[in-house]
């Protein structure tokens, strides 16, 4: 198939984003700061167009560009989630950027660049494509973390993320070098063929380093050290982007590399994934209990949720991948809704972040309190909200795979985590009212309402997500 035909058939969402970034940079350079509104609206349109391109795609599952890039149902499902996360992150950021005086056209351009890296990462099918996608995603994220450059906390967050991110990239490069040296190839299928019968010790070490680098991007324990500080210090819309779209890409490439490159050494990589899952679930459940800042609480919450998602991956079968896909789709909705609520926490024009600032919210703004309470219940896994079904499918996959202790640990840590989610509800409904929040912008109210309704009604009509996740899991195998 000619090169340009391959681009049109299998690379369309990436082409839309790449061309869109170039156009937006030119418009921003031409109009300067006056171009923020236009660039922002066009960025939303570009992301929407990319989502439509994925939804309408009917190409068969295949690898292109000499096997470097995989276009299959799994990649399309994960790309759709990533694009939705990026689109909503831009929508909920506009009001914050205007009030912070940061109406710079570079912001949506950086979001699109990072999203382009995520799409490339999700479809990576060899070690070079993996690293290129990871770095394109990460470099833009480093800048976004420090976007409010006059804010000391944001600058500190960006620097911490950059230094630790460079360390994780170095670990991944070292692991990739070991994999190439001992297998003689950079392609995932070639590595799988080389280690089909036995894996040299160098391959195992390479696998450990690569998974450690990916665990950093997922903020899975014990590679979580950057997460609380960066989540708290970075601008809140950027934190929402970190917690949503970036997590989709990191988990997707982790699933692809273990199943595509290491199907013959499942016992080895499963041990690593089980360790990451247990450590993340325990840390995310217990470390969040004493948090007073809601962004730090969400940081530890995201660590715990990555642990629960990895429980499904540890099952190492199609049902496990299906559970992970369902989990990520529901986690995306919960996270975007939660950060929309956090962005609505503004008193007399000043943004507040402490859980105590939510005191008595049910009496000062009952609608927002209800939406946030439903989001907290769903994050805790209370039935019949969607968060319950997310955990149910990953725990069920672990049980079916015979990983009973892992499923039990998941259930117990989920019960512990429910404490700090329900504490937020208690503060909103039973504490004496704090000063009332300012009027919530329409975009935030819309995201809150849509996400809450999706979580409430998931059990009524789960077929779209379930069918898409099933098809994605089948394509990966």
UniProtKB/TrEMBL annotation:
Q: What is its main location?
A: membrane
Q: Coiled-coil stretches, from where to where?
A: none
Keywords on this record?
Answer: Cell membrane, Membrane, NAD, Quinone, Translocase, Transmembrane, Transmembrane helix, Transport, Ubiquinone
Q: What is its EC number?
A: 7.1.1.-
InterPro entries per record: NADH-Q_OxRdtase_suN/2, ND/Mrp_TM
Give the membrane topology. Multi-pass membrane protein
Q: Which residues cross the membrane?
A: 12-30, 42-60, 80-98, 105-122, 128-149, 161-182, 188-216, 237-262, 268-290, 297-317, 323-345, 366-390, 402-422, 442-461
Q: Where in the cell is it found?
A: Cell membrane; Endomembrane system; Membrane
**Keyword Membrane among record annotations:** yes
From which domain of life does this come? Bacteria
Q: Does the keyword Lyase apply?
A: no
Query: Which residues does the UniProt record annotate as the domain NADH:quinone oxidoreductase/Mrp antiporter transmembrane?
Result: 124-415
Q: Give the reaction(s) catalysed.
A: a quinone + NADH + 5 H(+)(in) = a quinol + NAD(+) + 4 H(+)(out)
Extract the NCBIfam families matched here. NDH_I_N, PRK05777.1-3
Can you state the subunit structure given in the record? NDH-1 is composed of 14 different subunits. Subunits NuoA, H, J, K, L, M, N constitute the membrane sector of the complex.
Family membership noted in the UniProt record: Belongs to the complex I subunit 2 family.
Q: What does this protein do?
A: NDH-1 shuttles electrons from NADH, via FMN and iron-sulfur (Fe-S) centers, to quinones in the respiratory chain. The immediate electron acceptor for the enzyme in this species is believed to be ubiquinone. Couples the redox reaction to proton translocation (for every two electrons transferred, four hydrogen ions are translocated across the cytoplasmic membrane), and thus conserves the redox energy in a proton gradient.
What is the protein name given in its UniProt record? NADH-quinone oxidoreductase subunit N
């Amino acid at each position: 198939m000619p090169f340009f035909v391959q681009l049109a058939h299998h690379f369309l969402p990436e082409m839309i984003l790449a061309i869109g970034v170039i156009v937006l940079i030119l418009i921003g350079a031409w109009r300067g700061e006056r171009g923020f509104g236009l660039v922002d609206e066009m960025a939303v349109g570009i992301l929407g167009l990319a989502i439509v391109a994925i939804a309408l795609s009917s190409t068969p599952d295949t690898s292109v560009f000499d096997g470097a890039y995989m276009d299959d149902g799994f990649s399309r499902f994960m790309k759709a989630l990533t694009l939705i996360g990026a689109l909503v992150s831009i929508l909920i950021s506009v009001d914050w950027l205007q009030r912070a005086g940061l109406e710079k056209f570079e912001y949506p351009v950086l979001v699109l660049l990072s999203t382009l890296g995520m799409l490339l990462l999700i479809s990576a099918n060899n070690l070079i494509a993996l690293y290129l996608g990871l770095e394109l995603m990460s470099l833009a994220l480093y800048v976004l973390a420090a976007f409010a450059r006059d804010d000391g906390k944001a600058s500190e967050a960006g620097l911490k993320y950059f230094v630790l991110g460079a360390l994780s990239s170095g670990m991944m490069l070292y692991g990739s070098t070991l994999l190439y040296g001992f297998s003689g190839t950079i392609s995932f299928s070639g590595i799988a063929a080389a280690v089909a019968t036995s894996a040299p010790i160098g391959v195992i070490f390479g696998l450990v380093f690569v998974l450690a680098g990916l665990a950093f991007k997922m903020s899975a324990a014990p590679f979580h050290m950057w997460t609380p500080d960066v989540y708290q210090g970075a601008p809140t819309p950027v934190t929402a982007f970190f917690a949503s779209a970036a997590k989709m890409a990191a988990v997707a490439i982790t699933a692809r590399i273990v199943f595509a490159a290491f199907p013959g050494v499942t016992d080895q990589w499963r041990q690593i994934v089980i360790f990451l899952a247990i450590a993340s679930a325990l840390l995310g459940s217990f470390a969040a209990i004493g948090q007073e800042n809601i962004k730090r609480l969400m940081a530890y919450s995201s660590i715990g949720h990555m642990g629960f998602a990895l429980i499904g991956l540890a099952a190492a079968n199609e049902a496990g991948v299906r559970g992970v896909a369902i989990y990520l789709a529901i986690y995306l909705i919960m996270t975007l809704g939660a950060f929309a609520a956090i962005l609505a926490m503004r008193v007399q024009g000043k943004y507040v972040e402490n859980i105590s600032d939510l005191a008595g919210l049910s009496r000062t703004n009952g609608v927002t309190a209800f939406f946030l309470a439903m989001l907290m219940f769903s994050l805790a896994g209370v039935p019949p909200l969607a968060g319950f079904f997310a955990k149910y499918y990953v725990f069920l996959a672990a049980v079916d795979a015979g990983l009973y202790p892992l499923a039990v640990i998941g259930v117990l840590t989920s019960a512990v985590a429910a404490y700090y989610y329900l504490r937020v509800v208690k503060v909103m409904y039973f504490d004496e009212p704090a000063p009332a929040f300012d009027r919530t912008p329409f975009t935030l109210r819309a995201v809150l309402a849509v996400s809450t309704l999706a979580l409430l009604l998931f059990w009524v009509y789960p077929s779209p997500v379930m069918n898409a996740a099933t098809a994605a899991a089948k394509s990966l195998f």
